[in-house]
Amino acid sequence: MIAASLLSLLPFLAVISQSGTPVFGAPVNGSSVSPPPPPGGADTSPLAPPPLYAPKSDFDYQSLALALHQEWIELDLFEYGLEKFSASEFEEFGLLAEHRSLIKYMSDQEIGHAQLITNMLGAGAPKRCNYTYPFETVPEFVDFCQRLTRWGEAGVYGFLPHLDSRPSAQLLLQSIVTEARQQMIFRQFEGLFPMPEYFELGIPQNWAWTLLAPYITSCPAENSHLGWQNYPALEVVNGPSGIDLGFQRLPYPAGGPSITHNRTALSYPGRKVDLKWESPGKTVGPYENGTYVTALGSNVTMANSSSPLLQLWAMWAHQLNVTYTPILNVSGNTGYTIQPNGTTVFASTPNNPIVNGTSFIAIVDTPLFITPYNFSLINPHMVAGPAIYQAS
After folding, report:
1. What is the 3-state secondary structure (H, E, C) of 314-362?
2. What pLDDT is recorded for position 275?
3. Residue 306 has what pLDDT?
4. What does the pLDDT read at residue 218?
5. Which residue among 119, 148, 275, 392 is least packed, with the fewest CB closer than 10 Å?
6. What is the mean pLDDT of residues 40-66?
7. Would residue 39 count as lying in a domain?
8. Residue 245 DSSP class
9. DSSP state of 377
10. Residue 309 belongs to some domain of the structure
11. Which long-range contacts (CB under 8 A, 24 or more apart) does 364-373 make?
């Protein structure tokens, strides 16, 4: 009752003048009535229908279901890492009890995120699955966490403004910004510079599912099919890595976990990047019945990924940009490209190269012009990927 009474008085609460004297009801043209808000905006009127925090379309449902799969694997990953490695194994790389407690708290956050999306989806929401992870050491665990949270974050940014349900988008936004903080923390645990970019990329749902699905080994029978495509896997054969055992064993400030380290970038413009990719038709993900089979984009102009009829392109995706470089010396499902140079969008931004941080690379059949809002237009042109490229 008290809170409701205070809320009702908000338009009439005092504002403080420059002299510090309370002025009740800031006057507008001699009136004590507050001015109307600027016109426009969605659902800002008192006459707007109350928000419904649920999907309005199948696009919404499938996007939220994908986000829920991401939350489940993050919860499982954080719990598994804490269980797999002993205190002494963590401490060898400077991760003390306080750091491990933070990872535990991040797993608690994932419980809340999963519950939020489950509530929006209802009774048919995907349940937690079983997973297989590609690490055997603490540095590999931390590295995988910062990579996985990166594509999880980017995967939501990509579809968030396209949801038909704005109320659902609002709730999802308030969870994904927490995941962005998790990703930065894992970079700090790894001894990397925490945020070597000005903007964060959004990627399409197909990209996020392509990266996530291979780590799912099985799911509850009641989980329904997820309506996103898997592309053939792409491997950066000589990809740079954030793992540096010698550096990570050193005590701060020489190395190890830290708020920040001014480490030299892990890659550089002009670097030769060797690529290898799979052919389409491979079953991936949680189901053994061939439900998820990798496929090329619908407009790819080649007989198959081993017999290109046109030039293939490496698509470098990071921040506000996509940049294309030709794939050279293609032989079967291998080739190489050159890491591009340049700054991101604005020539005036220092220390902001096109390829930086935990970024993405894919193979496409055409260098299509796209922007952050219509990024998914690249989907029909996908040949393989994406893969994570650990530029810095």
Report:
1. EEEEECCEEEEEECEEEECCEEEEECCCCECCCCCCCCCECCCCEEEEE
2. 98
3. 52
4. 93
5. 119
6. 95
7. no
8. H
9. G
10. yes
11. 364/297, 364/312, 364/313, 364/315, 364/324, 365/297, 365/299, 365/300, 365/301, 365/302, 365/308, 365/310, 365/312, 365/313, 366/310, 366/313, 367/313, 367/315, 367/324, 370/322, 372/201, 372/202, 372/320, 373/161
E strands of the chain, at which residues? 14-16, 22-24, 130-131, 216-218, 234-236, 272-277, 313-318, 321-326, 328-331, 334-338, 358-364, 382-390
Tell me the mean pLDDT in the region 364-391: 97
pLDDT at residue 22 in the model:
46
289: pLDDT confidence band, cut at 50, 70 and 90? Answer: low
Domain count, the chain: 1
Vertex 201, ends 169 and 68: CA angle to 5°? 40
* Integer Cα distance of 197 and 392 in angstroms: 10
Task: State whether residue 313 is helix, strand or coil.
Answer: strand
List Cβ neighbours of 385 (8 Å cut-off, separation of 6 or more): 207, 210, 231, 232, 233, 234, 277, 315, 360, 361, 362, 363
Residue 107 lies inside a defined structural domain of this protein:
yes
Query: Among 227-236, 262-271, 333-342, 346-355, whose mean pLDDT is lowest?
Result: 346-355
- Print the domain residue range for 75: 58-390
Q: CA-to-CA distance for 201 and 154, rounded, in angstroms?
A: 6
In a domain, 40, yes or no: no
Q: What percent of the chain has pLDDT over 70?
A: 89
Summarize the chain as % helix, strand, coil (round to 5): 35, 15, 45
Q: First-to-last CA distance in the chain?
A: 53
Work out the mean pLDDT of the chain and round it to a whole number.
90
Q: Single out the residue of 111, 110, 91 nearest to residue 100, CA to CA.
A: 91
**pTM score:** 0.90
Residue type at 336 in one-letter notation: Y
Compute the half-sphere exposure of residue 22: CA atoms within 13 Å on the CB side of its CA: 4
